[in-house]
Amino acid sequence: MDVDVGSCIGPYEIVSLLGHGGMGRVYLARDTRLQRTVALKILSVERASHPEAKERLRREARAIANLNHPHICTLYDFGTFDGFDYLVMEHLDGETLETRLSRGPLELDEALDRAIEVAEALDFAHRAGIVHRDLKPANVMLTRSGAKLLDFGIAVPQPDAEFARRLEESRLTATGAMLGTPRYMAPEQLDGREADARTDLFALGLLLYEMVTGQEAFEGEGTLLAVAILRDDPPLVSMIRPEAAPVDRLINRLLTKDPDQRWQTATDLVAELKWIRGVPDVPLPRRTRTRTQITPRSQVRSRRWILVSLAVLALAGAGVAFILRDRFRAANGPAVRFTIPVDTVNAVSFGGALGSRLAISPDGAQLVYVGESREGSQLYLRPLDSLQATPIAGTRGAISAFFSPDGSWIGFFAAGKLKKVRLSGDPVVTICDAVEAVGASWGTDDAIVFAPSPVSGLFRVSSNGGTPQQVTTLVNGETSHRWPEILPGGKTLLFAAASGPDFTGSRIVAQALGSGTRVDLTEGTYPHYTSTGHLVFARESAIFGARFDEKTLKLASNPMSIVGDLSMNSTTGAALFTLSSSGTLVYRARVTTFAQRQMVWVTRSGAEDAVSEDRRPYLQPRISPDGRRVAIAIGEVAADRDVWLYDLVRRTMTRLTFETGEDETPVWSPDGTRIAISGARQGKPRTIFTVPAAGGSQATEIATTTYITHLGDWIHDGTALAWTDYDPARGGDIRMLSTSGRASTVQDFIVGGFNERSPAFSPDGRWVAYTSTETGQSSVFVRSVTDPSGKFPIAPEGGSQPVWSPNGKELYYRGPTHMMAVPFTTSSGFSAETPIPLFVDKYDREHRDDRNYDVARDGRFLMLRFEAPSGPPQLHVVLSWFRELADRTSNR
User: Are 571 and 423 within one domain?
Assistant: First the structure.
């Protein structure tokens, strides 16, 4: 809070508020004892309640108490009064350098004078063992007597390394903030290394750059600014202001990334600045003047002529030097790490179970990712030098993406098709069918190798279209080939192969396309080949690397973990990372807390009411026949997912399954006494079993399945249970289990070349609604239970996850943007009316193969509201990553 004008802090009477300084407010005050005007920096009561704020103010007092220098603001007093901690300093009449620069650059002579004064102040502080660490235009006051250095609030005694270490650990600024101002930080500060006198010299180089040019040395905000400071060199000042050419060398040395290459002391810098300015370091001795003698005044004029002459030469070479320097950095620059946020409005999530969700262009300049919003999925383009991601037209419904070798095209999968779109904005081109693709690679021969479904081998097709030709065959019990990578020359293929119901324990395989020779390389998934001759892949939430001999198709070193916090899905083999040919790595770090969802009731008009305040990784809610309980799966990881019961009346949660493994897709028996569940245990076949709804451990196995099984619905009389089965020969098919009589039998219901899923029985048991990709996109159909040969299309604009209203008068499904309702009649066969949009469907849509909502008897919808697990999603970017990869895999 502000201190009232006229009030007193001890002997100091407040006159007016001057502004803010560091962690406190600065007031103009009157010292009633000495009758002088002073500046009073005060921590408010609210600030004073934070120990780190109090310590920072006290540290500033300790730092400048003995710094008596004409270019450092003098400290008069320090104390505490009535809950206020304060500093008393000399009152300076002038303006900050920040205010002055808002009107443009300084005259060259004036800029050099101010730089000399600040350098002398730093030299004095450094000799006293104090490093400022927050030098910036706002902390330099310009007065009639010259520049004055302010705000030593985060200064550190230079010899006290232990104190500096504890200061960094305690982060004595605002909680979670960096020590210092990012725009004026040296590379070692951004890297978290210890600051010393050379850190202040880097910041002074930035100030001098701005004083001379009127422009900031490094452009951008946030992470883009950080990476510019860490890697780039600013344009030469002579390119902006030709007469400043002689300070190019000085500024370049001050802004060198390596502290060892800068001036090591401010003393040396002061001497260099004075030489350029034409000011002698010591008074000249009296001599007899001759024609050849140069006086200080004539020396200044002489140097100005030199400046102008050198400027002409500097301009001639500046462009070439800038280009050569940029190329040198690209080839030899050190690894640089930073993060970029992902737009949470247009792309709230990009971590789906299947598909290559991230892709980077070969030159490392363009990033494409699959974003999810309430309108569905879409591709977004994010240049790494931009703060914005833009949607790519025509890519609605995309599930994965990959670049062409020249970076001009993006291939992607959407609506059961393999497609491509040019970055320049041409219309989307459809290449061929792909049921539910899991990976693709675009070769230099313009052919694309892809996995058309999660349960097939790999196929190759021309990027111009045609009939895909199979290039790999499932052998020795394999169930899936995924994530292909074409090696240079197009004669060798890397891919991941699995031999179980999921991708846990998958192997990386190399295959020569001509001879068909296969070599088993190592355990892992999501393989990539680098121009440095390395195999890079995912395993156990880490990115591994190993040297790879392309000729012998063998590893030349042991795989080593390079990145240990990768976000991946071991069940599907998907991993969120991508590599450019130029050595840029982009990945999403593992989320340690799972995505949270809240159960909410939603009316047809969209009014929302929370079922409870509990938030967990909920999936697949199913309301009991009596409407009193909800069976729901909890857990994001397939290896640890269980089914629970939530009592809507008592508001209590009870766990139903306990074994380690995947228990999901609960379905109530019509009488509400039992719940059917699909389960998977490591090393065992998948099963369908039931448990008593009243609880207990009495599980009854009713069927064994070979492949991934997701339960759909139980018919009203309890005689049949329908589910989706992912058969390697067919893709997604719908099957039914007869549960009447002593013997259970399994029958095919809807099988074919499309992806059929999410079966739901009508209340009278006569009809089945389901989702299929036969129209080229996910859409809803209805078939008769007794005569499934005919079908009725329901969703003309596309849709998924159908469910019947309890009163048997409407069919609901999730459209592209809204929950939809379809009135129907069955008096003379099945007849559907035009779909009616209900509320905007802003709820969780991640698990598209399973109905992730339910409908109560009173017509309300039980939805899952998604909440991000750890704030806005971020991507980690590592430039020049190949050097680190080579270092970690050498001599192994």
Answer: yes
3-class state of residue 516 by DSSP: coil
Same domain, residue pair 571 and 697: no
Angstrom distance (rounded) from CA 759 to CA 171: 56
Tell whether 555 and 602 lie within a shared domain: no
- In a shared domain, residues 877 and 853: no
Report yes or no on 65 lying in a domain.
Answer: yes
Task: Report yes or no: 167 and 155 within 8 Å, Cβ to Cβ.
Answer: no
Residue with tokens 């339960």: 711
B/e letters for 357-382, b = 16+ CB within 10 Å, e = fewer, are: bbbbbbebebbbbbbbbebbbbbbbb
Which residues, other chains included, contact 762 with Cβ-Cβ below 8 Å and sequence gap of 6+?
Answer: 768, 769, 804, 808, 811
Q: Residue 65's domain is classified under what CATH number?
A: 3.30.200.20
- 504 with 635, same domain: the answer is no
Residue type, 521: L
CA distances from 822 to 601, 725, 796, 798, 844 (A): 20, 27, 11, 13, 22
Are both 793 and 667 inside the same structural domain? Answer: yes
Q: Which amino acid is it at 1?
A: M
Task: Retrieve residue 701's tokens.
Answer: 């196995």
- The per-type count for the chain, helices as H runs and strands as E runs, is 13, 63
Domain count, the chain: 3
Question: Quick one: 756 and 611 in the same domain?
Answer: yes
Q: Cα(641)–Cα(750) distance, rounded to whole angstroms?
A: 28
What do you get for the CA distance between the two ends of the chain, in Å? 61
Which residue numbers are catalytic?
Answer: 134
Residue 745 tokens, joined: 């039998």
pLDDT at 355: 64
CB 445 within 8 A of CB 424: no
Write out the two tokens for 42: 């005060």
User: DSSP assignment, residue 357?
Assistant: -
Measured in whole angstroms, the distance separating CA 312 from the mean position of its chain's CA atoms is 46
Q: Which of 56, 91, 126 is the last residue of a domain?
A: 91
User: Which residue type, as a one-letter code, is found at position 757?
Assistant: R
Q: How many CA atoms lie within 13 A of 760 on its CB side?
A: 31
pTM for this model (two decimals)? 0.50
Look up residue 517 and give its amino acid: T
- Which one-letter amino acid corresponds to residue 862? L
Q: Is residue 259 part of a domain?
A: no
On the question of pLDDT at 176 being above 90, the answer is no
Query: What's the one-letter identity of residue 167?
Result: L
Q: Does residue 491 sit in the same domain as residue 435?
A: yes
Is residue 458 a contact partner of residue 471, using CB atoms and an 8 Å limit? Answer: yes
Residue 266 covered by a domain: no
Q: How many CB atoms lie within 10 A of CB 695?
A: 11
pLDDT tier, 60 (very low <50, low <70, confident <90, very high otherwise): low
Give the residue numbers spanning the domain of 40: 1-91
Q: How many CA atoms lie within 13 A of 459 on its CB side?
A: 22
Estimate to the nearest angstrom the gap between the alpha carbon of 855 and the chain centroid.
35
Look at residues 35, 60, 91 and tell me which one is the last residue of a structural domain: 91
List the CATH number of the domain containing 685: 2.120.10.30
Please indicate, yes or no, if residue 510 is contained in any of the structural domains: yes
- 202-252 confidence digits (pLDDT tens): 999 999 999 999 999 988 776 677 778 888 888 888 888 888 888 888 999
Contact (CB, 8 A) for 805 and 855: yes
The tokens describing 588, both together, are 């999403």
State how far the Cα of 293 lies from the Cα of 301, in Å rounded to an integer.
14
Q: What percent of the chain has pLDDT over 70?
A: 80
Band (639; pLDDT cuts 50, 70, 90): low
- Strongest mean pLDDT among 58-62, 105-109, 313-317: 105-109
Contact 135, 207 (CB under 8 A): yes
Q: Please give the helix or strand (H or E) that residue 887 lies within, else none.
A: helix 881-889
Residue 304: pLDDT above 70? no
**Alpha-carbon distances, residue 741 vs 179, 623, 701, 738 (angstroms):** 73, 27, 15, 8
